[in-house]
User: What shape does this take?
Amino acid sequence: MDRIYLDHASAMPIDTRVFEFAKPYLIDSGNPSSLYEFGQDAKVAIEDSRRKIVDLINAENEKTIIFTGSATESNNIAIRGTAYRNIKEGKEVLSSAIDHISVINPMKDLQKNGWIFNTIPVDSNGIIDLSQLEKLLTKNTVVTSIMYANNEIGTIEPIKEISEIVHDKGKYLHVDATAAAGRIPIDVQKDGIDLLTLSSNDLYGPRGAGALYVKPGLKIQSIMPGGGQERGLRSGTENIFVIVGMGEAARITKNEMDTESNRLLKIRDKLISEIIKIDETYLTGHPKKRLPHHASFRFSYIEGESILLNMDMYGIQIATGSACSSKTLEPSHVLLAIGLKHEEAHGSMVMTLGHSNNMNQVQKIVKAVGETVSRLRKLSPLIK
Amino acid sequence: MDHFTNPRNVGIIENPDGYGKVGNPVCGDLMEMYIKVENDVIKDIKFKTFGCGSAIATSSMVTEIAMGKTVDEALKITRNDVANELDGLPPQKMHCSNLAADALYEAIKDYKNKKKK
Assistant: This one.
């Protein structure tokens, strides 16, 4: 059975061009800390990759980019490294209610260590409540973290406005751009961002690499002391293959973003318009301000994990924010934050498109969704 | 997977001899079990389930195990029996098999209560 993969937010394949470019470094590369030529070649490759990340987000210079092992690591260094280094400026941190768990958990960890941690509510479309942001900010708010766009509902936040409010009352703005980067243009200077998280895999790069942008002049400390690589912020011998791959992935994604996002947007819109024709089916997230590759829904009376398993029988992979699919058995905090009831949040489905998708798949997907919903509703005791 | 793909005994029984309902849609699981009993033997059993793949599969499995058993035999079906018949469930899914067995107990309890009257 041909696979129709619609879960690019969870994992992406490596672009074969990226793999071919980075492959020599997987097989054999020197240690960039070594002074002989073989080691210095590796250092040159890393710096070349750093320049490509600079280009993707229009950073000021190469020194602003730190390579890490994942977006989770970037989020941790950004939040904890900034909070600890600037402890004299205040001990308050803020995040949106729908930020990723790798933002929320480091903040909860700070809370255990004496920081004040608050979350900013969002409206039913997932847009940050700017008046609440203003209310919650104080002169002691050292880190405010807001994701550029949400991975579960696709909503894009008004980062520029948020930045103005944060800088007016608080100190530094961290933005997790894992879901947004490569899909929509990001400009850290225009947007007024102090710290920005990127993930390699979300750009069709290899897993095991992330990057953190740190605005020039911002003071931040290491959360993992060691050999002092990456400006001392991410010690450990550099993983050249994934770093080189991430850079090349950033370059290709940036070059192709306009064309690819427009292509996916058309498929996405067709999927949405067809799927919401199903009875008691609703779009989750913002209808307009949403990522071009992202379609997310909820269906009344049925549960997301069984939707996922049923769709898999058609060879179609989707994601869900249902409790049953999580380790904690709690429904997605994002869906609860946009005001869904527990039983509504259980019936969610997320589709994220990518390179392998095309318009010809739409009919098969829509048919599979229709049949899945109808079959599970026949099993459901919630419909009489 | 088979019990998820092709669940057995889906549906409702009009005027059942016993009816059991457990779980709560808020928690993501709700099961209803209907039984038809003759001479204390379960002659027919049907279910409806809102829940994950494991919840659907365990409901189906419980109905299959219980069919044809006496109500007292059926009461002895343990949560582990259900999971074992399905060749095991991941630990975080064990509560699903609990629910399926519980729904059956509730249906039998209802039957016994009705009989007393």
About this structure: The mean pLDDT of chain B is 88.
